[in-house]
Amino acid sequence: MKIIPVNASRSYCVHIGDGLLTALGKEAAAVIKPGKAAIISDSNVWPLYGKEATKSLEKAGFETVNFVFPAGEASKTSAVYLEVLNFLAENHITRSDCVIALGGGVVGDLTGFAAATFLRGIAYIQVPTTLLAAVDSSVGGKTAIDLPAGKNLAGAFYQPKLVLCDITTLASLPEDIFRDGCAEVIKYGILYDPQLFAHLEKHTLAFDREYVIARCVELKRDVVLEDEFDTGARMRLNLGHTFGHGIEAQSNFTVSHGKAVAIGMAIVSRAGARLGVCDPQAKDHILRLLDCFGLSVTTDCSAPDIYRCALSDKKRSGGSVNLIIPERIGFCRIQPTPVEELQSFLEAGL
Ligand code: GLY
Hints:
Strand content: 15-25%
Shape: globular
CATH class of the largest domain: Mainly Alpha
Bound molecules: glycine
Low-confidence stretches: none
CATH architecture of the largest domain: Up-down Bundle
Order of helices and strands: EEHEHEHEHEHEEEHHHHHHHEEEH
């Protein structure tokens, strides 16, 4: 088991290991005085882990209530968010109570935003059950819901009190969803860590779960400490996301987040190599690794369609978008790109 401290505006620990769900109540009680715990989960995760989470919390003295919404990105809306807030209000959740996000990225983002805004902020705990949530979205305090105009456009920076990642829960993930998380794992290797990248090249899908998740969390922790509110270094975590979000939206979310990010990373690597920014060998390694993980590096979406969606990217600032472009494995540059140059960049990478 590994424990990684995150000393952000609010300090907390990320626990990573096998079988941790049974200790949820004990670990929660160590950071929050037991009162009511509202468990928010989705229709995929609740039947698998709801009972165990409830049992553990109740054993530690929490009184639990639960709210379960349909699984999938289509639930990350203002409507479901308001349902969660109403649920918390109807169950008389107070500032001394807490909310538990039991699930993947959608559950974590939406629950975190509800926790950030209900009663102007109540304590919450992230219990990620997907690889994507474990290595990225559950750590660092970004919470959000989607708006019709784009992904994650309404949200807050709000750090959890604890992140508890039970690696055993990843075993029940459909392979497709697991691969989704692999795209984010590969992202961390490209951004910061040639050794992590080499481990993934060597082991592909059989990578060491605890080492890789803990390493990604450490890397993310370091970025969050440097730039918690996403005004500089943290933007690098957007590698592959500007065009990825466009592909996701264009496909009506039939292309999942991780797969879209993988294509986005391939696009910026190819365009970067053509423009002399990305080392061509690094580009080849990136494309090969994505392929080894069964992640597509091409898309049927057209450049104008992706471009249109990329314009509503959160990383847009005035007339330019901050593109994250790999220079070599372990380092990416932040390149402010005028919106009028974005489409030709995109075309160079498709
Ligand atoms: N998922 C990107 C970030 O936390 O900044």
